[in-house]
Amino acid sequence: MTPTCPDGHASETADYCSICGKTIGEPDRLSAGRGVKGQRGAKTPGGARPAAGAPSGSVGTCPNCGSTTETGPKCAKCGHAVGTSDSVAVWEEEVWEVVVRPDREHYEMIDPEGMEFPETVYSRRITLVGDYVRIGRRSRDGKPEIDLSGTLEDVGVSRHHALLMRQPDGTWALVDQGSANGTYLNTEREPIPPNVRFPLQAGDRIHVGAWTTLTVEQVDVSVSPSREVSVPSKDTRGVGRPHQLEICLLGPLRVTVAGNEVTVGSPKVRAVLAVLALRIGRAVSTGQLEWMLWGDREPATAHNALQNHIVALRRLLGPESIETTPQSYRLVGPKDMVDTFRFERRAGRGHDLLLSGHPGAAVAELRLALELWRGDPLPDLVDSPDGAGEVAGLLERRAGAEEDLFEGRLQLGDHEGVVPDLTAAVDEEPLRERRWAQLMLALYRCRRQPEAMQAFQRFRKVLGEEHGLEPSPEIVALERAIVLDKADLRWTPDERGEG
User: Contact 50/39 with Cβ under 8 angstroms?
Assistant: First the structure.
């Protein structure tokens, strides 16, 4: 039976409408546990273990409060919704790393034609940080966290090769992004299928490109005290999930406690909360907080003033909301309590879905991500040292999400609807080449070829007259293809890529 979305479109996918992007049912979270299509229960490559959710009513450990209890839809002790994303217990700071190195054994197994094993061998240990880590090679689209160019150059690696994705229990999973040469796991001689999530464990070996191997390691912080891992001063497992607290930083500071909005009066108190919220679950040193508040003009009473600000926040948010650790403070709770992390999670998932050929699902996620923005972010930190950098980082990630949304809409055939939005977007940020290219393509697909060429000339003028720069070869090639009326620029329904 063909799925139908709320607007009546016949969709090629059952989770999101492949036409308009609206949700049909529960989102397909890149279906953890999905094996090769048509091979239910089949053995997976390299002993990889497709993830499986715990059945309702089973006995297990709550990922938020750590209690051993019967796990239904919610934990009986702390109320955590079992299975929600990004619910790693805040007192468990698991550290995962990969060791990246050239591997002659893998090189000889795949025997890549025309590629020579490097004469000088480098290796690097990389800590896995955040909700996902990209494996690939740098390009104009950006630099992946594991960049296999430069000293670790592997010409067999695709620009967007694979993803390491953090799981709700704190472990990691591997997803191939449709790479040209495939991604191999452990000793298997066949690559893993693209766009399928394979959970990892310590000791697993990921092979990419012509000769690169990434070995997954879990660091035991109890025997590695030199690592910068903040350990709570008390057991917080009895605290429970402070799910009544929500902190919004993507606009004027907004705080709700148990569903009621509360006022954080003092600018300094708001700034302290903003810094702690940006690093929720991690210890922030008193020195860093004092620097963000006063910079080089720190008063003699700074330490006592900071303590008073923390007392004020505890009075407002609850006595156990902020934990004292040696020479630092920690805001307790899951990252989804703060809107910046919800935005990054949704925007990141939208980007991943776009790369994996699911523009309808990508558009749905990206719209939800961008709806979280209410204005200029972090207004209480704009004048503080390092505050401008935090703001700029958030604005850059918002611009990237907007461009991913434009890209998804173009892939869905919404070129007429996206033209006004792209026109406003290039006026707002005229130096972002990607949105100029998207505007040119949208105009061309609307049979407005002269206007598409005029858009290119406008962009070239902005770069040349104001900054002395030239457009990239990629956008020059796009303009040339528009002039020649290349057929491959035209949109066809097959371009959606959903399936």
Answer: no
